[in-house]
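Late entry, evening session. Most of the bench is empty. Finally got around to the prediction I had been postponing all week. Sequence below, unchanged from the version circulated by S.P.
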Amino acid sequence: MLKYNDKEVEWNENFTFYMSTSNPNPRFSQAVFLRTTVLNFVVTYTGLLDQIQSMIVTAERYEIESELSNLIEINLANEKVIRQLEDNILENLKNCDPKKILDDDDIISKLDSTRDESLRIKK
């Protein structure tokens, strides 16, 4: 049985139901995602251009595309480390006594090490 507009309709295995929306970012509950297949047909010019360039480079010079993929993965990992460092700084500052923040050697050393790590990642 399928409930539609407060009516229960008998389910037929040959029945297919399609929905579309002009909303570029629709929100569905987890239950909807579990029971359906959601297709996202949003295509941008830049996205298509990137895909075509990637296909051409892969066909012509696979090692360059492979290196690019590795660099993207490293960049994502570095961004994650920087976010963790920022979260650690905020946590340390939150737990520190505001009146003694400049006298706290532990906080200052953590800030220095965080700055050094951030500079290393940015290189």
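Two things to note before I forget:
The CA atoms of residues 85 and 114 lie 6 Å apart.
Residues 63-122 form one domain.
Will write this up properly tomorrow.
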